[in-house]
Amino acid sequence: MAQPLERAFLVGVEFSWRPATNRTTPASTDSGDADELSSSPRRTPAGKLLPQARAARNAAAEHSPEQQRGAQEPSADESLAELRELTRSGGAAIAGTMMQRRPRPDSATLIGSGKVEELKGAVAAADAKLVIFDHELTPSQQRNLERALEVRVIDRTQLILDIFARHARTREGQLQVELAQLQYLLPRLAGRGKEMSQLGGGIGTRGPGETQLETDRRKIYRRVRRLQEQLENVRRTRGQQRQRRESAPIATIALVGYTNAGKSTLFNALTRAGVLESPRMFATLDPTLRHITLPSKREVLLSDTVGFIRNLPHTLVSAFRATLEEVQRASLLLHVSDASNPAADEQREQVEEVLRELESQDKPRLYVMNKVDLLPEKKRESLRDSDNAVHVSAVQGDGLKQLLEAIDARIQEDPVRRVRLRVPQSEGKVLALLDARSHIFSREYRDGYVELDVQAAESVLRRAKEFVA
Hints:
Number of strands: 13
CATH class of the largest domain: Alpha Beta
Oligomer: single chain
CATH topology of the largest domain: Rossmann fold
Distance between the termini: 73 Å
């Protein structure tokens, strides 16, 4: 008998002193305190982060009539709607929602004491056992809210970490998630439970609470170091595998995009790999590589990667760096967007921010506008592909031929050329290779030889170079 779903109460927040979103960069870490928020760490100044994302948005949206509202920061209501989907993906039932709008965050509780009292009544009435904030909480805010509400309180980051933990299947994925969770937990150890409480400074206050706290910290630090060593081994092994792949002239193409944009569905449509397709967020965590054959009959490797999301926890970006190296080493990125989503432009910008975090902002891109089957018929009829954007429906298979042709035109590895060959009929392996891996324009049989006019990749022609006429 299935256990009933945990009931969660969602809290959205919006502060008028700044844009509605919590962060503009995945690397930043909001804390709820105004001073901490204003100085949240970023790799580059905020003013330098957006131009590349805007350029990416314009490149994809230039030929996308369905995306005319322009990229903009999501409203608090849109962000709360996304939190609902995250909560469902986390396996909880939504008991209720509440929105708090105020000039500035409250340093003690984020939302203010009056709103906390209102929230306590609403949570009790809804019989919720968990409250999820659509904003990162500082350790002190989280503790204060749990004391006041008398239920568990988590923030958006912790929810995402929990979803990742649920969906990780491979040993590597589980290691990466555990590392991210421990790095998130460390600053939140103090005061977690009476047995770990600290009594304050001065003589006579150095008791078992402090000892327990430091013991737990040491245990976590040791585990973190162990996980980092194991992931470094994974990274080394992956690097060796990549070197073996790169010794052959085969290009790697990485699918990137916002979570639930349809990357795994597109991956299956192109490769018939049968990876999990799910409307839930972050259904794919473990990377998958498969061969696909392009119209030129060249073979390339296609990689399915974890979906991105606004405010992706920095600890996750760091922990998944070994997996996301496939993005860094790819010859081409297929940036998949949900063309039917009104927030598609803003989601594209968020993906560009994560790519910048991965130092992959200069990679060649092809924008794939997926789920066009969900658009109204008139909009579908007005869609036009361009040099850098292709419209597809991975579910129905529409546009996949055009997508493969667009990929073929962008791949530089293993270039294709046209030659004439004179192959002895006794060379069955060479003739079979040419039949399978080249376009044959003409074939004539003369005096025990087969004369062929073919177009093929360099890797194929090298195996038949002695027969070039």
